[in-house]
Amino acid sequence: MADATDDIDKLYEFGERLNDAKDKSEHRQDYEGIIAAANGSVKAKQLAAQLIPKFVKFFPELAEQALDQHLNLIEDHELGVRVQAIRGLPLFCKDTPEQLTKIVDILGQLLIAGENVERDAVHKALMTVLRQDVKTSLTALFKHIGSIEDQSAEDFSTWDSIRKKVLLFLRDKVFPLKTELLVPQELMERHITTLVKQNLQDVTAAEFKMFMDFLKSLSLFGHKAPAERIQELVEIIEGQADLDAQFNVSDADHIQRFISCLSMTFPFFQKGCIRAQSSSTI
Length: 282
Prior knowledge:
By secondary structure, the protein is an all-alpha fold. The protein has helices spanning 2-20, 28-37, 42-55, 63-74, 79-88, 91-94, 100-110, 116-132, 134-142, 156-174, 178-181, 185-198, 205-217, 227-241, 252-271, 276-281.
């Protein structure tokens, strides 16, 4: 018990010296002490989870070691330690943008966390990094949606669980805030449209409808959009319908996707927005 108290007292000392120092980089030994303390008691781990990301920017030569230790805290058996460590992750890329893709990738994997408070911490951390750099963050998140063919059999179950959680996060947290997050508007709406188009290979009918509803909500494809942009949407639907493939009546998802694609094109027919090639195809 005395050793645990001593560890916490030392952590407070390290933190206070770093807080007060004008040139924090001269206190490398204190920061190394904070990293080492992450192997201590539960309370020491929780305090280290606050201090490691807080001061990491002043010690770039220790950044990799600090992140590795912090990731150990994220895998700790104590929920309070994990939550505190998750909350600190955005600080690792706040002043070092080259780390942002890695942090988003880690947070994306953590979306499958089982405890509500843990998942909530992941959601908030992801929203923080999205607001730091929405373009890079979205690109990293969409990598979790990619092709099934890229996954090995033993990794498929975990990958599929993460993929579904990422899709839910995009639908529930990102898409409703598109006006706030997608800035500058035209540039970022085009970027997320490209990301969606690149990741439609293995979506279900319901997932495809979710993406199409989102794209149609963008100003890029709004009621004032030129005909060529509406045509772009129609071509996305055509590609998903896979009209050149042999129709398999025993494939329920294929049928559902085909019917869904047909229903999506009707409004465009009514508006007369589809070129002759598209109307003859569908």
